[in-house]
Amino acid sequence: MDDFTAQIYSQVHQIPQGKVSTYGDIAKFAGFPGYARQVGKLLGKLPEGSSLPWHRVINAKGEISLTGNDLERQRSKLIAEGIEVSDVGRIRLGRYRWDGL
DNA sequence: ACTATGACAGTTG
DNA sequence: GCAACTGCCATAG
To answer: Is DNA damage among the key words of this record (predicted)?
Structure first.
């Protein structure tokens, strides 16, 4: 587990329930500005039963970057936390965005 | 070494 | 608000 992975993991883990953050911000807060794509790749490799709240991470447009069935899974998890997700997977960042601690 | 690809992002018209 | 373009960086073939 390299330093990058460790930092990203801890950062994602801090996103409070009912809030969301973006790939770019996570990378930035973790100390790796510009590594948004690497964050996405990392989350994609996560095991199913991971304790990491990966579903609280979305893209800068405020939408879920997954497709098909995966998108549905993430949406249900978010809705379960009280976050409003439109039928196309869009979320109001102005309302649910997490700006760090 | 080179190219293509991806759970991305910022700027511009 | 949206589409096109450009910049970004690790991985895979």
So the answer is: yes
- Give the pLDDT of residue A100: 86
Q: How far apart are CA A12 and CA A44, in angstroms?
A: 13
- The verdict on residue A101 lying in a domain is no
Question: How many structural domains does chain A have?
Answer: 1
Check whether residue A22 has its CB closer than 7 Å to nucleic acid strand B: yes
Strand partners, A90: A63
Q: Tell me, in Å, how far CA of A51 is from C1' of B8? A: 23
Token pair for A61 = 């447009």
Strand C-proximal residues, CB under 7 Å? A 34-38, 41
In a domain, A29, yes or no: yes
For A34-84, write each residue's pLDDT tens digit.
Answer: 999 999 999 999 988 899 999 999 999 999 999 999 999 999 999 999 999
Whose C1' is closest to the CA of A32: which nucleotide? C9
